[in-house]
Specification:
Length: 677
């Protein structure tokens, strides 16, 4: 039996079972006497054990087998659920997740799980598991005693010796990032940038390529030559966000000789095995998974790559549909017009089906957070209640894949720096238990995700003081800012590299990275906060990234597309209705002063010199801000395929992409958010 063909489905189903374990363990913690919950966890563990054994992953199978024994003892009333037992089962699930992730990344899924297995065996016997030292504790104990020393080849040793002769000092740095650090590669880049200003990096372990691909845990070492002191270098590296520990020591080159490079282990060849007796059948391939009955509905697992291919083909069909519609209008043939209309209706239905196939509930992302919140609350000695609202809200799979890490970061910030300790909350007259709400909902062609806490809020004055000290703005400019504009400052690049994160309630940690990720998805993030009452981070994301509805407009002979999701209204404005305020042309739109932006000037479109007393204006909105975009004429609404401008044109102002129209012309798609900013 060839196991490789089943690997993808094994990984997907294993993740589902582990997610189920996590969810039910959290429920069991609240209702320890409910044996129906234990049965659910047992079933997931039993299925996972069978699949792992069939696929030949022995460490996975042995750990799930021992976990299954403990759960069986609980459901048969031989054991009673306690906090100590739950902690060990949670640890086992953590190990299982690490092994499945290793397999998903192309690894062999092997892990030393002996400490978890021993603890589970002791629990099964009715003894306390606390005597067993965990792998992590043992490794930490060894690390504390270890003298770190990188291995150097002959060339590197020559460089180091010459550096010493020229008065440079050679240092080795062992750097540790936070356990829950997001975008580790970005932090490594920042550390290298700091170090290269102090000297020259000679070597890193793991190598730079692996660091860039985040193929390391939380620790790595660097060999640096510099004339600065060890204390100065350590201080500078510690200022990089999410660095928790830096050990630095001078390197003595005495006794160093050329060392053999470590031998790379060849990947093990998959072994074909007979199916063990009593084990379940292996999972089916992604297109032939056994249909799961769920209230009569039958589902089939489809590889996301196939959906991507289907979407790309349909995008080409949308372009050709536009061309056919144009030809039909030009020829004015009744039968052709009728056929094209019918084709348009059918392809519209097909479009909805394809887009819906790609839609995934945000629940798949939200499910990881209850467990994370539980652990963080315990680590921080805080009482926190996590409420999840609207988990059934659906988003495009490509957006779902990217949004997880920013949400983890924002929730961690709310827990760590937003919600106060029980004692602080009591002193403020609040309940000891803080609340964090994770909310998702649809609005138009967008999905909104909000992270709200009832914690300390953000201090306007502290943010302004920090911004002034960093030279981001002056006191005079700061006084003119609204609260929301002040809160936006903490998402500025570099704002988070403060000596003491608590200076701005810790809200700046990595928020520049979070903001960049969300904006790369075509979304926006805003902050609303009231001191001592709480903070709301609001993320706005597009439902899908590929096919959008636009208003086509003309400027001179060039065509532009403006997304309908940004448009409030279109209007014709007379010259005499245009006013001036602060050297900016504005109009009165339903009682509000709205600035006018002449796209002809912004995009530097060559003018034919024709002047008109009337102007075609499109009113667009981003949040509470509005603007009027002045164009020459409106063409009409159309659904278009959003195409990237490519790597060469990444920094074109206020243009988010392009589309091919029915007549073969290219129309640029206007980024209204950039214009309003």
């Amino acid at each position: 039996m060839e196991m490789n063909q089943y690997l993808e489905v094994f990984i997907e189903e294993s993740k589902e079972h582990l997610q189920s374990c996590n969810q039910h363990l959290l429920e069991l913690e609240k209702n320890p006497a409910d044996l129906s919950i234990v049965n659910e966890i047992f079933r997931s563990a039993h299925t996972l054990k069978g699949m792992s054994a069939t696929m030949g992953y022995e460490d996975l199978a042995s750990l799930t087998h021992q976990m299954e024994n403990v759960l069986d003892a609980i459901r048969n009333n031989r054991l009673t659920v306690t906090a100590e037992i739950l902690d060990v089962v949670f640890l086992a699930v953590d190990y299982l997740e690490e092994m499945v992730q290793s397999i998903a990344s192309g690894g062999d899924g092997k892990k030393d799980v002996s400490d978890a297995v021993e603890k589970l065996k002791l629990i099964e016997k009715g003894e306390s598991p606390s005597a067993v030292q965990s792998n992590a504790e043992a490794a930490a104990a060894v690390a504390d005693k270890k003298q770190f020393k990188n291995e150097y080849d002959e060339f590197e040793l020559t460089v180091l010796r010459q550096s010493k002769e020229q008065g440079f000092e050679v240092y080795e740095l062992a750097i540790s990032l936070r356990e829950d650090c997001l975008l580790k590669a970005a932090r490594v880049y920042m550390i290298f940038e700091v170090l290269e200003k102090t000297g020259e990096v000679i070597k890193s372990n793991p190598p730079v390529e692996q660091l860039e691909d985040e193929q390391f845990d939380q620790e790595f070492s660097i060999t640096l030559v510099s004339k600065e002191s060890a204390d100065d270098i350590k201080s500078k590296v510690m200022k990089v966000s999410e660095v928790v520990k830096v050990e630095i020591q001078p390197v003595s080159l005495d006794g160093f000789s050329e060392l053999d490079q470590p031998v790379q282990e060849a990947p093990s060849t998959p072994v074909k095995e007979d199916k063990p007796d009593g084990q379940e059948e292996p999972p089916a391939t992604e297109t032939k998974t056994a249909a799961k009955s769920n209230g009569g509905n039958k589902t089939i697992r489809v590889n996301i790559e196939r959906l991507d291919i289907l979407m790309n083909l349909f995008e080409e069909l949308v372009i050709d549909r536009g061309r056919l519609e144009q030809i039909s209008r030009e020829l004015n043939n009744g039968e052709l017009h009728e056929t094209v209309e019918r084709m348009s209706r059918i392809s519209g239905d097909l479009q909805n089906i394809i887009l819906n196939m790609r839609m995934v509930p945000v629940e798949t992302v939200f499910n990881r957070f209850p467990r994370m919140v539980r652990q963080l609350a315990r680590d921080l000695n805080k009482k926190i209640n996590l409420e999840i609202i609207g988990a059934e809200t659906e988003l495009d799979r490509t957006v779902i894949d990217e949004i997880g890490d920013p949400l983890v970061h924002l929730i961690r910030n709310s827990l760590d720096h937003g919600v106060e300790t029980p004692a602080e909350r009591k002193a403020k007259g609040k309940s000891e238990e803080g609340t964090v709400v994770l909310r998702a909902y649809h609005s138009g062609n967008h999905v909104f995700i909000e992270i709200e806490d009832d914690g300390a809020g953000i201090s306007r004055e502290k943010v302004i003081s920090k911004a002034i000290s960093k030279g981001i703005l002056t006191r005079q400019a700061a006084d003119a800012l609204t609260d929301n504009q002040v809160f936006d400052l903490i998402m500025a690049s570099g704002f988070s590299t403060a000596e003491k994160i608590s200076d701005i309630s810790g809200r700046g940690v990595g928020l520049d990275v979070v903001k960049n990720t969300i904006e790369s998805l075509g979304g926006t993030i805003s902050i609303d906060s009231t001191e001592n009452q709480g903070t709301v981070f609001s993320i706005q994301l597009p439902l899908t990234l590929s096919i959008i509805s636009v208003m086509l407009v003309e400027i001179e002979k060039e065509k532009f597309a403006i997304p309908l999701s940004s448009i409030i209204e279109t209007a014709i404005v007379k010259d005499e209705d245009i006013l001036s305020a602060h050297n900016q042309k504005v109009i009165d739109f339903r009682g509000r002063v709205v600035p006018l932006l002449f796209l002809k000037d912004i995009f530097e479109v060559p003018s034919a010199g024709n002047q008109d007393n009337f102007h075609s204006v499109i009113i667009v909105r981003k949040g509470e801000k509005m603007a009027g975009l002045v164009v020459d004429s409106f063409i009409g609404q159309q659904e278009v395929v959003l195409k990237s401008l490519g790597n060469y044109l990444t920094n074109v102002f206020a243009i988010s992409g392009a589309t091919i129209l029915g007549d073969g012309q290219v129309a640029l798609i206007v980024d209204c958010n950039a214009l309003i900013k």
